[in-house]
Structure of Nickel import system ATP-binding protein NikD:
Amino acid sequence: MTDPPAAPRDSLLHVEDLRTRFHTDAGTVTAVDGISFDLDDGETVCLVGESGSGKTVAAESLTRLIDDPPGEIVSGTVRFDGRDLATASEAELRAVRGDRIAHVFQNPQRALNPVYSVGWQLLEAIQLHDDVSKADARARAIDLLDRVGIPDPATRIDDYPHELSGGMQQRVAIAMALAGEPDLLVADEPTTALDVTIQSQVLRLLESIQSASGLGLLLVTHDLGVVAEVADRVVVMYDGTVMERGSVHDVFERPSHPYTRALLDAIPGRDVDLTPTAARDVADRDPSSATDSTTGCRFRSRCPHAVDACREGDQPPLHPTPDATTSAPDGARAHVAACVHFGPDGDPDVVVDSAKSADSGASADESAGGDRR
Ligand SMILES: Nc1ncnc2c1ncn2[C@@H]1O[C@H](COP(=O)(O)OP(=O)(O)OP(=O)(O)O)[C@@H](O)[C@H]1O
Ligand code: NI
């Protein structure tokens, strides 16, 4: 007897062909155009890509935080712990949001109500989740504030949000997110609005919470330095689609899609910020391409390896890359790139060899058995 074929492994989160549009005066914008990825328990998946690539819309489509109208989640599956959130009722979703899946936003004020004390809000979140006495909830709230690194939490619990610095507000927002003991934390640029000195502290906090409690973390970021540090797996988005997906090792060591290569090439050091590229991209873009009219690969006009096949049909599907260390039969975990050169009629060397000659020697290290100087 053989096992039933291709039964998808049960991930904590399984997103398939998710598509979200906005109806604007200028036309319909498909901000997220059929993306797919998986996230397991205890895993950190980073969603990267330049500004406007659809990261936020993707993250907020998961629990349908998108305003409808003007937004509309047109299709797709968002299976979370066995149920499909895309077709769940509003009541079911409310039960999932904040409880099983919590969001941390770029701006902590989005999570905090200015007219209530931090403690009041935390207690409410705790008691919504668990039927505990007020005294117990308060003790738990103080413990949460302590866990997120708020000094003197028994006193600060009575502060109002405006009495706290931005970094402390974000810590409180993270405490609020943790109050429901979620299985998945969706954090969208959680450090971008903070002082540079605070950013790494908050990031390290998220990382330590993630590893201590084993929750899944979907981290939206444009900072590739952060990705290298915290991600298990990476989803690279461009213009609403997934261009490349794989383990952080594969994507960073063997970037395959020309877009990913361009992203990584633009970076001399580790502290990478995609904002300048993003600004250039928006400036370069034909305004008509903002609405749906694309044929072929969305990256073709910026791609050094574009050929005729890149100008035809739809965005190429995600093809397995030849050199993935994690390419398993399980497609969700494989290293894949949405590029014709990785397709059945393509030659990956068109993309990959161009880089080999550029950094000759450096990447030959491994195969040469460590010819290090
Ligand atoms: N309310 C809206 N109405 C119309 N278009 C929208 C709306 N929200 C987002 N979009 C469009 O969806 C696309 C994706 O936006 P999104 O905010 O998800 O990008 P992002 O990758 O998160 O960018 P950033 O790095 O700047 O946060 C953009 O083209 C944006 O203009
Ligand atoms: Ni965003």
Notes: The chain has one domain: 13-100+182-362. The first strand starts at residue 13 and ends at 24. The longest helix spans residues 196-213. The pocket of adenosine-5'-triphosphate (ligand 1) is lined by residues 22, 24, 29, 31, 49, 51-57, 70, 222 (CB under 6 Å).
